Structures
1.
Amino acid sequence: MAAAFALLLWPTTAFAQDISAKVTFDLPNRKSTVRLSDSFSVTLTAEGPAPIQVQVPDPVLDAVSNRDWRITPVGAAEVKVIAPGREQWSRVFRLSPYVTGDSLDVIFAPLIVNNRMVSVGGFSISVITTVPEANAEAARPITGIETLPDPPPVTPPVHGWQWILAGVVAGIGVAAMLAWRWRRRPVAPDAREAALAALDRLESETPDRAEQLERAAGILRTFIEQRHGIPATRFTTTELLTATREQADVGAIEEADALARILDRCDRAKFAGDIPDDNGCRSLVAACRDWLNQQRAACTGPG
């Protein structure tokens, strides 16, 4: 993380001049934008008469910002004396974006400082994706006129029986090599069948609901990575869905909208704590299985 790029935005004093709160934040690499896969730290600070007492709301962000950002605390709150009879409270949080946008707001819910509601405010920041746009013209190399090589020398003619003998020897060699490789090399399982088997094992192991949904999403991501060459296990959901729509070699993916709904529901359970009940989890795993079954036979893999 680069050195502090802290900016004070919208500090507010509530009810009395002796109580105040503010938010500062550190951006990666001193830039004014972050990538969808990035995260950065923010620090909430409050000052007031000693002993200072601060209550952090749950959720920490307002309703709109809580939809677009994931926020998690980093360590415990700290209190220090800044003047006789006056203290400063601070706590660090980690912010990660869910979506992209030119100017995404990060608005904090008010703090309760010494039984008084104090508005913290917030800031705006740009979030960009890391999925590059395809440019066929840029990828096409420009070369000059090439000189053709000289024609190969003429070889003396070969009699017909020599061609037959050479073909028989080559055929025996190829057959022996294929037979050897067939015995020593196990047959790779079909990606779709492997994914369905993984879902069966997941249901039989009965993990807790949050882990079950996270693993179900991972099974779908692994299937897409193996069959279509997209680094789905390293992409965020937004980047993955963007790639499935922009890259020409993934046109075989069926039911992209259903995939988007499944991964979005799993992300809400993982990042926002919105975990469905047992019936909801079973329904979501069943939706994963239905999506895999709807993939065409032509999508079972290259080669």
Note: Residues 1-16 have pLDDT under 50 and may be disordered.
2.
Amino acid sequence: MFTGIGYALGMLVAAARIFSAVLVVTGGVKIGRPENTARALRIAGFPYPRLSTAAIGVVEIVVGISGLLLGREVFWAQSAVYLAFGVWVLRAIRLGHVVESCGCVGKPDTPPYWGHVAINGAAVVFSLGAALMAVPSSAPQVIASVATFAVIGAGAMAIWVLLGDSARVVGVLRHR
């Protein structure tokens, strides 16, 4: 029984670390290709969108790397970053088709949609859970947990991409 709890907690931490890695990637994209994120921020009324995009990218990279290296101590901040992005997506959804891109990975053809809200909600839950309940795990447990969640994460990303494509098709059909 206790081993099962330990394994579950290890999975929780592994999921939070996968979300840490996602922050490193999305932060890097925002710094490398800031145009789409800056445009999304400008449309939503943010001042200094290019500077804001760079700052957001740096914060994502720092929090993501810290989450990968330090874990529990940083998962609180990580959950706040994902919560903020979830709120941003909700605001963008409210604005309707005015915001063409969510700005998360710098792709111009990814409109904000409810899948973004769900992914960010999951990131908040896993990060907060890991912050509250993280316990040290052995290296094999961490590797097994990360591998399992990588497979689950790949499936979730595939679903996210399919939902994004569906949202784009529906948007195109709605405008005809």
Note: The chain has a mean pLDDT of 76.
